[in-house]
Specification:
Elements: E1 8-12, H1 16-27, E2 31-36, E3 48-51, E4 57-60, H2 73-84, E5 88-90, E6 95-99, E7 104-106, E8 117-119, H3 125-131, E9 136-140, E10 144-150, E11 155-160, E12 165-169, E13 171-174, H4 183-188, E14 211-221, E15 232-236, E16 241-246, E17 258-264, H5 266-276, H6 283-298, E18 309-320, E19 331-333, E20 338-340, H7 350-369
Parallel strand pairs: 1-2, 1-13, 2-9, 6-15, 13-20
Antiparallel strand pairs: 3-4, 5-8, 6-7, 10-11, 11-12, 14-17, 14-18, 15-16, 16-17, 19-20
Helix pairs in contact: 1-3, 1-7
Length: 371
């Protein structure tokens, strides 16, 4: 699909917010180029593929384990559409809390009380599909290092991390917090891609969004953990573990092995980051974290055997601690056609990200109509 620069929009980040925005704009006839520094789409909704030493393939939803929705009509329409395409299914499991003090499950919810959805066959299935729709050009493994606005050209120029040109665009949507956060410099050593001080219509409070870091532990067992009656639960009175999910109990997953994902508490992750820094964690750090999280899991006294696969992953800034644009749903500079969207704008969950992506698409569509 070839279009003029007047109808081109760059989207930075292929999490659910950016992917929903890209798909919605494309359906409105606007050409979209999506840039994602990772190898594939999904962000926190990505799925991890791992190979064991003996050649077995394992998959883990190591970020968002599931999502739920309220009565937002726009989100409900999308869920119905995704269900009709086989991208989403309900995860019919009871959720509970495990109390470390009493070693008991508490607050076991009634089955079907709240609908919980998962992507099929992985949480990233939704973003994968959205990023492949007509009108969306997805460029994975391409990080954006700099964005420049030109009043003379009335357009944006994007450059890669090494200064290479990524093209000119009439509008930009960023769903990636690192685009405007000092964390970008802390991790890469390079200047922040965009100086939000030049965009008075976008509040400066967004430049440093507080986040809750987290370590995810991916585990695989030869046999089902029969002493655990609940497939999804949070932890009470643990300084190390926040929640646990049995991935292999979800619809569309392989049952060849029993796969679990554990999430650490934010406090535990903050302590590790304080000692090791924000740079990519070393294999030694991840191995130490994996062992500590697994030992805490075993201390539940739930008869947890050794795992044949055990690997940790760090989410440094994926879980926002606040919402910065609850009323507007996204941030928008009309003059320069710059939108900021993400779960950090509405609510720190998948539904909030979807709502924000839809809002950014609406702002962009309206802004481009006036050109």
């Amino acid at each position: 699909m070839t279009t003029s620069v007047a109808t081109k929009v760059a989207i930075i980040g292929s999490g659910i917010s950016g992917a929903v925005c890209a798909s919605t704009l494309a359906k409105n006839g606007i050409s979209v180029t999506l840039f994602e520094s990772a190898r594939g789409p999904g962000g926190r909704m990505s799925q991890r593929r791992e190979m064991t030493e003996d050649g077995r393939e394992l998959h883990f939803d190591h970020g968002a384990p599931y999502f739920s929705v309220s009565n937002n009509p726009g989100v409900l329409r999308l869920i119905c559409e995704w269900q009709s395409k086989g991208l989403v299914d309900e995860w019919n499991e009871k959720f509970a809390t495990f109390d470390f003090a009493s070693k008991q499950f508490l607050d076991i919810e009634q089955e079907g009380l709240d609908k919980k959805y998962v992507g099929v066959p992985g949480m990233n299935s939704i973003c994968k599909s959205l990023c492949q729709e007509p009108g969306v050009e997805s460029r994975f493994g391409v990080g954006v290092g700099k964005l420049e606005w030109s009043d003379n050209e009335d357009s944006w120029s994007l450059m890669g991390l090494n200064g290479e040109s990524l093209g000119s665009f009439k509008g930009v949507v960023t769903s990636d917090k690192s685009t405007f956060s000092q964390r970008f410099t802390n991790v890469t050593g390079k200047p922040v891609p965009i100086d939000m001080g030049k965009f008075p219509e976008i509040p400066l409070k967004m430049t440093e969004i507080p986040v809750n870091p987290c370590f995810a532990l991916m585990l695989a067992f030869e046999e089902p953990l029969t002493e655990i009656p609940i497939r999804a639960f949070s932890f009470k009175k643990s300084k190390v573990l926040h929640r646990a999910f049995c991935d292999s109990s979800k619809p569309g997953r392989s049952r060849n092995s029993e796969c679990w994902v554990l999430h650490s508490t934010a406090e535990y992750a903050q302590d590790v980051i304080a000692q090791t820094g924000l740079q990519k964690p070393s294999s030694a750090t991840l191995a130490k974290v994996a062992e500590e999280l697994f030992q805490e899991f075993q201390s539940t006294k739930l008869g947890i055997p050794p795992a044949f696969f055990k690997k940790a992953h760090r989410w440094g800034s994926a879980f926002p601690a606040i919402s910065i644009a609850e009323d507007e749903k996204c941030l928008w500079d009309a003059k320069k056609r710059l939108a900021v969207c993400g779960d950090f704008c509405v609510s720190p969950d998948v539904e909030g990200a979807i709502i924000s992506g839809l809002a950014a698409a609406a702002k962009c569509s309206e802004g481009l109509c006036h050109l």
